[in-house]
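Q: Predict the bound structure with adenosine-5'-triphosphate.
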Amino acid sequence: MSEVLKLEKIEKVYNRGEPGEVFVLKGADLAIAPGEVVALVAPSGAGKSTLLHIAGLLDAPSTGRVSIGGEDVTDLGDRRRTALRRSNIGFIYQFHHLLPEFTALENIVLPQLANGASQKTARDRAMMLLARVGVDHRAGHRPAELSGGEQQRVAFCRALANAPELLLADEPTGNLDPETSDRVFETLMDLVRETGLSALIATHNHALAARMDRVLHVDGGVVTPGS
Ligand SMILES: Nc1ncnc2c1ncn2[C@@H]1O[C@H](COP(=O)(O)OP(=O)(O)OP(=O)(O)O)[C@@H](O)[C@H]1O
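A: Predicted complex:
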């Protein structure tokens, strides 16, 4: 079976040739097998978010190849890239990035409608996901009316709304207090394991990283196996 995600010889330079040139990635390689949950640990500024954005088709590498589900997607046009991202990749950020004017339920329904689901299917799935993370009783509330932990649980549901094969998370519990972070992280790991998702999860927390199948480091612009 082919890798769910494969990055080959990825380089990323910001402001190339200008005084502010930053060479962030210098030949990063990474592959994730189906069902594998991988931690990405890196010092601040090492290029972890840059790598996740490239893996999530939110940004293009300066050079190198990106494959999703065995298909080389490096040179895809914007429309196909957006469609592939919407159906195959779930993204969770450190800050939830939920749409403030919509309810928790609507935040999970909207990406499904954009992906072609019917209202009923989308609502049923959204309610099922909210119940799974224990926030269904808050379905009709807007993000500002929810606690930080609840907001992040809703963001998990949104990331899983279209049943992606790959979940990318950039310090998904980094803005929560340690106790809430542990509980919310537990929910995320349960969800990932239950659904058989492949995941790449960036975290500064070594204890959380140790609970994943494999740990990778980003340092000096390359990806190396962790201990
Ligand atoms: N658009 C940009 N233009 C110029 N430099 C950038 C840009 N985006 C990121 N950088 C620089 O690239 C480097 C890597 O950034 P990135 O956000 O990937 O780091 P990170 O490992 O995720 O850090 P943190 O853990 O602090 O979020 C940093 O030095 C950052 O300043």
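A: The first helix runs from residue 48 to 55.
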